[in-house]
Amino acid sequence: ALDSDSLLLLAPRRVGKTSLMKHLVYLAHDKGCQASYLTVEGAADEADFVERLYRAVAENPPNITKTLGDRVADSSLGTWVNRVKKVGAFGVSIELTAELKKHRPESMTVFGELLSGLETPWLLAVDELPLFILKLLRLDDSGKRAVSFLHNLRELRQNQPGVRWLFAGSIGLDTVTVRYNMADTINDLRLTTLGPFSIHSADDFLQALARSYELDLHSDVRRHILNRLQWLLPYYIQLVFSELLDMDNRPIRVTDIDALFEALLQPANKNYFDYWRQRLKEALG
Description:
Strand 3 and strand 4 (92-96) form a beta hairpin. Mean pLDDT is 83; it is low at 83-92. The two termini are 32 Å apart. The chain is 52% helix and 13% strand. The strands form two sheets. It has a five-stranded parallel beta sheet with strand order 2-5-6-1-7, with helices on both faces. Strands 3-4 form a two-stranded antiparallel sheet. The protein is of the alpha/beta class.
């Protein structure tokens, strides 16, 4: 899908979106492109978002970062930058001027100019973009600031055909944009979904975990675990398996699984599940 489009990955929390994104970045070189992963949940504003983009790109091999650094230092873009400095064995960092930070649309344009002209295709995997959009909505409840940012980001995608974007988050960007009447800002993105494991994949996963820890897990026990879970997200399978490792009973029986689930649902373990309630209020009102 990334051969032809930028993507919006829709999936519930705990399904493995971040792991998938990082794996795609890891595989990118085999596909003949450079790739960077970043999360923007903690970005303070639009300029901070752009600085995070630049830092993510600058982590790539020295020939790439040297090109970007030269483009900043040797062009008119330098007027928008306080300093460009070397970081570690390779890579550079950029610090935008206070003036540019005041002109939020221009900060996105600057990043686009930095990428333009590079021969190597790029994949930019951006995690938690919906949470950053919610932050912009809190900073400006009229929605104008968030809409402006999303339009600028869309323009950046359209002006840089050599760059593919992969967006994801613990809440759906489509949900956020529809709720605040700005769905047109992401209508160029191709939607793709990542769901829970099938019953067969979940069983294979449990067996692989059991083998790696030399734990005897009979098929009846595995079947009962998956029947109790119902929604076969990797995180919760791993959570149950972790509890299995701490059990004293060997061999593990079906009745042990019922006791394990009752223990997991005690108030002391509320933090494993309370996230869903919080997100319903924050993302959906």
